[in-house]
Amino acid sequence: MNQLDIADVTKYVEANIGDFHSRRVDKLGELKLKDVLKRKNPYLFKAKNILTAQDLIRAIVDAFISSSEEGIFGNWLEGLAIHVNSLVYGGRKSGIPGIDLEFMKGNDLFIVSIKSGPDWGNDSQVKKMVDHFNSARAVFKTSGSKVNVTAVNGCCYGKTTPRNNYKKKGDYFKYCGQVFWEFISGNNELYKEIVEPLGYLAHKKNDDYEIAYAKKINIFTKQLTEEFFTDTGEIDWNKLLEFNSKGTI
After folding, report:
1. CA trace torsion 230, 232, 237, 240 (10° rounding)
2. How many Å is the Cα radius of gyration of the chain?
3. 110 and 224 Cβ atoms separated by less than 8 Å
């Protein structure tokens, strides 16, 4: 085990945080109005009494972007976690499907599935993760490895219940927030220390994003008024619902 130098973490963040911001802008550029309209609930927006094209566009785009950014940043944090662990324990991105990180600590081999927060999946998704853990154990067993394999669901933020992060769940442990970052780094303050470098160039990058966002809102607003508005200047909810929901059995 090596002692973690926070300067190495800061250097990595500053060198790579631009990838997150660039991906945000790219994802925004990939959006198509009709794709977004198909995925969002038109009844909800009608119930909120949305009357103008721009308000409707902002509502559906913001809802889409919020969930999209969570996934983008979750993937970025996964890369940070793997890098941190590589500095301390020599861990690496696993080549086994469904396993994000594997590393040795003492006499144990840890296999880790990294998620953003504690409430990341439904029962079937959790079962799939457990299946991946069991498959990974089988791989190490057939390879002749004699090490003890311990499975961990690591969550980058949050906590399951107060001081319950260590509770074993079935055949794996679930470590969240501070406990997860300490588990992979040996540093119980890392969960706070990584916050500051995350803001590197954030102001400039957000300016770039806001420009791209404004352009997308303007383009979508124009398209919406052309295709889903009545001649009297109202949202044509019937046409919008037909596009979103009409089908045949």
Report:
1. 20
2. 23
3. no
